[in-house]
Amino acid sequence: MTDREFKKYVNTEIMEYERYLEGEKRSENTIKEYAHFVKDMLLHLKKRAEEITAQDLKKYKMYLSTKKKYSKNSLYLAVEAIKAYFKYKNMNVARDLKAPKRPKQMPTYLTEEEVRRLLNAAHDNPRDYAILSFLAYSGLRVSELCNLRIEDVDFSERIVRVHGGKGDKDRIVVISPRAIEALEEYISTRNDSLEYLFSSRKSEKITRVQVFRLVKKYARIAGIKKEVTPHVLRHTLATTLLRRGVDIRYIQQFLGHSSVATTQIYTHVNDKMLKSVYDKVLQEY
After folding, report:
1. Of 26, 127, 235, 257, which is the active-site residue?
2. Residue 231 is among the residues annotated as catalytic for this protein
3. Which of 56-70, 152-166, 218-232, 259-273 is predicted with the least confidence, judged by mean pLDDT?
4. What's the CA gap between 66 and 141, in Å, rounded?
5. Domain 112-270 adopts which CATH fold?
6. Angstrom distance (rounded) from CA 130 to CA 115
C-alpha cells in the first residue's frame, strides 16, 4: 500500500469511527478527541487496524509517554480512545492496554471580582457579553451553549432547556435576570432568522473553538492572570453556589452530573474559607 493509499485508508477509518461514536451518543468534544488520538496512532504505526498487535500498542503508549511527553491526563484519554476504537472493530488487541489513573486536580475558578471584570470587559459587544453572562450564570458546558436554540429559552420564567447534554440527558437550567437582559439586548441587534441562540459571521451557530477564543480574549483584556476557559466559568459558578450554602445535590442537578460523586470535586475550599471555618470551631484549647 502506497503512502497515499494508506492516508486514504486512515481518513476512511476515522470517518467511520466518528459515525460509530455519534451513534453511541458521545459528546462532540469526545468524538473530536478520540478521532485525533486514533488517527495519530494509525499514522505512527503505519499499519492497518487488523495488522496491529498488543505489543505495537504497548510500544506506542511508551512513545506517547517518553517521546511526546504526554501528561497522565492526555495519556489516559489516548488509551481510552484506542480501546474504544478496537472495541468498535470487534478486536481484543487493546484488551490489556492499561490507562494511567487520572490525577485529581483542584478545579481552577475565578473570584467574584474577577468575574465582574471579565463581564465588564465585553460590555460593549452585545453578543460576546451575552455569551459570557450565559456561561457565568448558567454553568453550561460549552457544547451545550453552542447547541442552544432561541426556542430553548423561556425568557419570562428565566429557564433554559438543555437538550442532549452530556450522556444524552436533557435538563432544565435557571439563569439570572442579568443574563436574560444581556440575551434580550443581543437578540434585539440581530436581523436574521437563524434558529440558534448564538451565531457567528461564518456559521449559523457559534463553534466551541470560537467560544474558547472569546473567553480567553476577554480574560486577557480584563487582566486576569489565570488560564480562563468556558469550563473555568462552570467551576466558578459551582464554587460560588457551594460557598453561599447551596446543597451539593442541587448543584449536581444544576450542572447535569449523573452522580453526586462528580460534584464532590467542587467541595474544595480556598484559604479564606478554611481559616473562617477553623476560627469558628477551634479558637483555643
Report:
1. 257
2. yes
3. 259-273
4. 33
5. hpI Integrase; Chain A (1.10.443)
6. 14
Q: Which are the contacts of 70, defined by CB distance < 8 A and separation ≥ 6?
A: 64, 78
Q: Which of 166, 186, 218, 235 is catalytic?
A: 166
- Give the Cα separation of 93 and 90 in Å (integer): 9
Q: Which of 142, 112, 132 is nearest to 28 (CA)?
A: 142
The gap between the terminal CA atoms of the chain, to the nearest Å, is: 78
Q: Is 58 a catalytic residue?
A: no
**pTM strictly above 0.70:** no
Among the options 141, 186, 218, 235, which is catalytic? 141
Q: Is 123 a known active-site residue?
A: no
pLDDT in tens, 116-151: 999 999 999 999 999 999 999 988 889 889 999 999
CATH class of the domain whose range is 3-88? mainly alpha
Active site residue 190: no
> Is the distance from CB of 60 to CB of 43 less than 8 angstroms?
no
* 213 a catalytic residue: no
Q: Please give the sequence-ordered ranges of beta strands (E in DSSP) within the chain, or none if there are none.
A: 153-154, 159-162, 171-174
Per-residue pLDDT tens digits for 56-104? 999 999 999 999 988 888 899 999 999 999 999 999 999 999 888 876 6
* Residue spans per domain, the chain: 3-88, 112-270
Verify whether residue 166 is a known catalytic residue.
yes
